[in-house]
Amino acid sequence: MPELPEVETILRGLQKKLAGEVIEQVFSSPARVFQSPDFDPRKRLAGKVFAGISRRGKYLIFTISDIKMVIHLGMTGQLLLKQETLPVNPDCEGQDPHIHFRIHCGSGKLLLYRDPRKFGKILFFTGNEELLCYFKRLGTEPLSDEFTYDCFSRLLQGRKGKIKPFLMNQAFICGIGNIYADEALFSSGIHPECPVSSISADGRKRLYEAIPSVLRKGIESGGTTFRDYRNSEGDQGSFQEKLYVYGREGQPCLLCGHLVERIQVGGRSSHFCPSCQEFSLDCS
Q1: How high is the pLDDT of residue 280?
Q2: What is the pLDDT of residues 45-66, one digit of tens each?
Q3: Of 5, 15, 87, 189, which residue is 20 to 30 A from 213 by alpha carbon distance?
Q4: Is the model's pLDDT at 18 over the cut of 90?
Q5: Given its phi and psi angles, is residue 67 left (phi above 0), alpha (psi -120 to 50 degrees) or beta?
Q6: Nearest to 118 by CA among 241, 33, 179
Q7: What angle do CA 40, 45, 46 make, to 5 degrees?
Q8: Residue 14 CA to chain centroid, in angstroms?
């Protein structure tokens, strides 16, 4: 599933290229990715202008004149920007059946939403209050000025359970998924099963610094591609070549040589080095 670095990479690839573009035509399939049943994008978006793109956690927010289009890529969603070379084909004959949404701009630019498994979401909001209400459940942005050490310490204060599920809980810190949680925990030397309540002040500090560091490195590498993720130009990311533990089960740790292991934590696979991240009830 695309996480914060992948979504941010797509945002950066689209924002300058779509700014000021006028939407000419819109085509959509009846796929379940559309979750605003009373909004017909084919009628409501035509003639509107792309005014900007922002991000909230793993969500992309497109400002299209007075409308907000929110996209969550789910597991296999892709947003691709192409230049049309053929006449518009409303019926999509002979085209990729996994493309569920097409926005044609007057300049010839074409924005495609592709999603083989259809676990993504596309929503439309006509008021800022509705949008704010929808995102109210999301926690702190880990790359924002609000994510201070004091903020992080308050989030951990009094929490029960293990640290790995905490990091992936979007109500606390939004944008972190399985890949970057594993990498941040490795970078800070904390075992994924470590109880939140037992992490020392020094451990909290290391983890606080590791989270934005790992996310920024992911962005610099254009995200992580194992199978489906692509940027807006259809290219893969390269952060998978720089991972220390995620997806490296049975391979030597790049720091100590011990074999990387994989366990289930909170129902999700977790990769770690048992030497660099030795488990202890006192996660100092």
Answers
A1: 66
A2: 999 999 999 999 999 999 999 9
A3: 15
A4: yes
A5: beta
A6: 33
A7: 115
A8: 15
Please answer whether residues 23 and 45 qualify as being in contact, where contact means their C-beta atoms are separated by less than 8 angstroms: yes
DSSP 97-151: TTEEEEEEETTSEEEEEE-SS---EEEEESSHHHHHHHHTT--B-TTSTT--HHH
Per-residue pLDDT tens digits for 240-270? 999 999 999 999 999 999 999 999 999 999 9
Q: Cα(139)–Cα(190) distance, rounded to whole angstroms?
A: 22
Residue among 231, 250, 165 nearest 15 (CA):
231
CA distance 92 to 14: 23
Distance from C-alpha of 131 to C-alpha of 150, rounded to nearest angstrom: 28
**Measured CA angle at 263 (ends 270, 265), to 5 deg:** 65
- pTM listed for this prediction: 0.94
DSSP state for residue 84 in the 8-state scheme: -
Q: 142-201 pLDDT, tens per residue? A: 999 999 999 999 999 999 999 999 999 999 999 999 999 999 999 999 999 999 999 999
Task: Supply 120's token pair.
Answer: 């993504």
Spell out the residues 6+ positions from residue 140 whose beta carbon is closer than 8 angstroms to its own: 146, 147, 151, 155, 172, 173, 174
**How far is residue 24's CA from residue 22's CA, in Å, rounded to a whole number?**
6
Q: Give SS3 for 54.
A: strand
Q: Which of 64, 1, 69, 86 lies closest to 34, judged by CA?
A: 69
- Average pLDDT, whole number, for the chain? 94
Buried-exposed string 211-224: b where 16+ CB fall within 10 A, e elsewhere: beebbeebbebbbb
CB atoms inside a 10 Å sphere around CB 53: 22
Q: In a 10 Å sphere around its CB, with 0-12 CB exposed, 13-18 middle and 19+ buried, how is residue 64 labelled?
A: buried
